[in-house]
Amino acid sequence: MIELRDIHVTFNKGTPLETKALRGIDLVVPEGQFLTVIGSNGAGKSTALNVLAGLAPVESGSVRLDGRDITNWPVHRRARMISRVFQDPKMGTCEDLTIMENFALAHGRTAPRGFRFAIGNDMRDKTAERVKVLGLGLENRLDDKVGLLSGGQRQAVSLLMAATGPSSVLLLDEHTAALDPKTADFVLDTTRTIVDRLRLTAVMVTHSMAQALSTGERTVMFHRGKIIFDASGEERAGMSVEDLLHLFKKTQGEELSDDSLLLG
Amino acid sequence: MSLYELLGTLETGFVFGLVALGAYLTFRILDFPDLTVEGSFPLGAAVCAALIVTLGWNPWLATAAGAVAGFVAGWATAYLNVRFRILHILAGILLAISLYSINLRIMSGPNKPLLGVDTVFDAFGGFGAPTYIVSPIFLGAVTLVVLTLVNLFLHTGWGMAMRAAGANPAMAEANGINVGRMKLYGVGLANAMTALAGALFAQIFGAADAYMGIGVIIVGLASVIVGTSLLPSRTILQATLACIVGAVLYRFAVALALNADFLGLRASDVQLVTACLVALALIGQYSGSSFKRFFKGADKKDD
């Protein structure tokens, strides 16, 4: 379970560039829930994800995960419990390493790394089996460097890597935004399958309202560093992109200026 | 070039093969341009020589102690970078210049002759073969052992983590790797190899000298660049082998340049020759595409 309590984040504090990225976020995500997060540019949705991952410094407030206060934990320590898929397909994998070696790295996220060989026959077989599910033929290319794969393939690999080992939380940071529509659909389907099968607590940040409503079971909307809308269950099930826009206008009393939210 | 010269060049080539492996680890694996080696090479020599001459240590132990001292120096450089965010190059320079003073202290003077004492090379006196034949074989073996260890290490869980820490720090952190710690150990390890090379170098030439570190960084880099641009370096094994071959080839290139009378070069020109070779190799490696553009500029307008 994720608990964010009264989180404030300010960038460039005390300079003319001071930006209040988050102003008092309270968010509780129960175990096993798939939450989608939406908002225009600069709304603070990515910052919120970074607060969870440990990349953004929290000014005040607390971050708790499964009851433990992790507010001051460094990224690599949180990584034992939190896995992450980046927006840029190049970020989630190591292109100089082979597919197999990347999976060995991901395996070390939850299992202790030692001075034994990182890759055993057992791990090889298991990885081949897991990669086969993608249907991309990657099980025959385990010793190819990841740099040889396409963006979509790399993102699918990142996703499988993030689902290696017993994590509690999966963070998805607009992980389909850099892909073409067809590949994006494929990666999104894979995401749904994996989250469903492993019963992960997942937080997905997205730019597309349609995607936010059609994926997962709860949607929150960020605006200017605050959560302005939180829907789940039947309320969300009957909702369309137009309803969401209408609601947004009503709560904010202003036109949504970011066209990219309408598209897609 | 006589047989004696040839074996001597091979000898130095192998010693600098260790420096090249260190440079490969820092520059290529960790993406941490490390200048500490200018100080840790003579540090290894100084510690080794002082321990043998002044304290009468066993030469093997003294050599190992030299390598440990190198590890500490590299660790300190990485610490300045990781903990205090001092630019890696600057941290290396700081360590290198402070090691210059430290080395003078260790040797209580600008050099420490190793005359009339036992060195690791004396252990092979019993084989009947003269030292100038035995020592290149011994050094070749040492270099191969270190190469094997580096290869095995880079395929362990820790080694893989170190490679990721250098290649993609954000991804490494997200996968639970403490990138800062990897730098501490990695740069330490690289300097341990460099200091080991320094300790062996001092024992070949019969003295440790405060100035023997000048240009070591360039020699190490030159070996990596020459090796990896001439030989295939797709896997770690290929790349590390290429580094050692590069070190040996580089030594031969320098020896030939200095031996060719028509060039009119002197032994003191060696640093200039080194710098020119490295610059040429770098130009060839990194701006290959701009070379092509320069020559094919006219017919590449369509893209």
Task: Provide structural commentary.
The complex is a heterodimer of chains A (264) and B (303). By secondary structure, chain A is an alpha/beta fold. Chain A has a single domain (32-51, 79-254), classed as Rossmann fold. Chain A is 36% helix and 23% strand. In chain A, the strands form 2 sheets. In chain A, strands 6-7-8-3-9-10 form a 6-stranded mixed sheet, with helices on both faces. In chain A, a hairpin with a 7-residue loop joins strand 1 (2-11) and strand 2 (19-29). The longest helix of chain A has 18 residues, at 181-198. Chain A starts with a strand and ends in a 12-residue tail after the last helix. Chain B has 303 residues and is mainly alpha-helical. Chain B has a domain at 3-209. In chain B, 74% of the residues lie in helices and 2% in strands. In chain B, strands 1-2 form a two-stranded antiparallel sheet. Chain B starts with a helix and ends in a 7-residue tail after the last helix. Classes of the chains: A alpha/beta (264), B mainly alpha (303). At the A-B interface, helix 2 and helix 4 of A face helix 6 and helix 7 of B.
Query: How many structurally independent domains of chain A?
Result: 1
Uncertain segments of chain A are: none
User: What proportion strand of chain A?
Assistant: 15-25%
Going by CATH, what is the homologous superfamily of chain A?
P-loop containing nucleotide triphosphate hydrolases
Coarse structural class of chain A: alpha/beta
Number of DSSP-assigned strands of chain B: 2
Provide the helix percentage of chain B.
over 70%
Largest interface chains and counts: A-B, 33 and 22 residues
